Amino acid sequence: MEEAAAMVASLPDDVLREILVRVTNLADLLRCGLACKGWRRLLADPTFLQRRWSDQARFVGFFGRKYGHEELFFTPTPRSALGPGRRALSSFVTAVPAALIDKAVPLASRHGLLLVRLKHVDLEPGIIQLAVCNLLAGACHMLPPLDFRSAFDASWVRANFHSRCHWNGYAILTSTDCTSGGDDSRSTSSFFQVVSISIYSKGMNCSFLHTFSSNEASWRVRTDWSLGIMRPDKFMSSVDAVVRRGTVHWVFRYDEEVCLHTIDLNTRTGHISLTKLPFLMNRGGYNDLCLTLAVNGALSVLWMQTQGTQLDIWEEQEEDQLNVDASSEWKCARTIKLKEPGMKENDATQLYVVGEKSGILLLTDKYQNVYTANLETGMMEEVVDWPYGYYIHHKDTVLFEMDLPAIFSSWLDTKYT
User: Fold this and answer.
1) CATH number, span 53-415
2) What is the pLDDT of residues 85-118, one digit of tens each?
3) Which residues form the F-box domain (predicted)?
4) Model confidence over 217-258: pLDDT tens digits?
5) Angle at Cα 386 formed by Cα 379 and Cα 94, nearest 5°?
6) What's the CA dihedral at 33, 39, 40, 45 to 10 degrees?
7) Measured CA distances, 357 to 79, 131, 235, 292, 332 (Å)
8) In whole angstroms, what is the distance from residue 170 CA to residue 144 CA?
């Protein structure tokens, strides 16, 4: 044993790199980094990290449920860094009973964190239990119960909480999203913030903002009447959000004006605004589009054409790139034709948008097959781990991405401090 250890210790760094880059299991690679300072130095090198994950996209899979079923599971994308095979959430998070976590509702994700609502918790109407799961660390942070009764009459909330006059949007942010200037209290890699925005109508007509930070003990609550003109029973939206430079954006369809809007929340100032987008909704249903970020960081709408497999990519043209509140225009930056290997030119398969992360689009067709598509090349791949014939819906699905080099480097730093 001592001779083998001495032999390994005598290997040149370039040989060790070639061995370590072939370690496929993340947990095993982390153990290698904890073996000694020399190995940790090699693994923490940015060149090694980029090489290790150079052929793997940040979008590694999605959380969803088979339509009509309660069980939540993770489905990997082709060549996912988390490996093949569908898995229950409890396979990542062991600190919470499987019977509870596997029936959670996915709400939002960001930088390796997943926000869920626990359904089977004995709470009164108007109170929900949220949790933030760190999948790679296997940790679960239970948040204080979120009580919607504190801002409104409790009897009104009990009567209307699950009705169409109530809508919630969610977002999870990390320290990078929330820090500005020299706020050191939010500079740690473990910091996160959860945002919940609710809109009520039917006599109330106001929005209700909850925020929770991991360095605080309770939710902060604020009532805002500036969005009171909206009627939540008239729009549809996915609950997950787009985060850009500290501002959270939710997109929705407002039927009475037949157009799209975004609700925009600046998390640093608390300012909430409403933006009307120059798109008429006469070209298809809501499941034909999604809000995302372009490569240049601009807000972007991906819109599948009503017939066929052509995708229009619209981008916001900001007059002042440093001012997110500046007036802007939108233009169709490009149109691409999505194509599955083996698909003929005249094939008329209709595709529907589920979501997008890291330049990879998640789609489904009328036969409930699920695909990913590269927005640069337009090439599609089937997600073989999705159960055949089961319907997938954007409202029940949260796409999951990770910056694996950054997360792995953060792990090494945490273990050695």
Assistant:
1) 2.120.10
2) 999 999 989 888 998 999 999 999 998 899 999 9
3) 5-56
4) 999 988 765 665 555 444 455 556 899 988 999 887 765 666
5) 120
6) -120
7) 15, 22, 24, 8, 19
8) 16
